[in-house]
Amino acid sequence: MRIEYDRDTCIGMYQCVDEWDAFEKNMDDGKADLEDSEEVDDQLFVREVPEDAEFDAEFAARVCPVDAIKLFDDDGEQVV
């Protein structure tokens, strides 16, 4: 499973931080940071989701009020 995080879209509500510990508050920027991610495009961060964290990652994506987080299964189909 792969997660994509559009940091430019993030408005800093930090709901993702409450759902998955891979997201951290960045109070200086007023946005969340996604640990162990790679910036693949301007402010678009991607990383693989460990199997034991898939449930938490899904909730992090679902609670984002601006849909800045997308989750894809191993076939590339968008889950959230």
TrEMBL record:
SUPFAM superfamilies: 4Fe-4S ferredoxins (SSF54862). GO terms for molecular function: iron-sulfur cluster binding; metal ion binding. Keywords: Electron transport, Iron, Iron-sulfur, Metal-binding, Transport. The keyword Manganese does not apply. Signal peptide: none annotated. InterPro entries: Fe-S_cluster_ET. The keyword Iron-sulfur applies. This is Ferredoxin. It comes from Haloprofundus marisrubri.
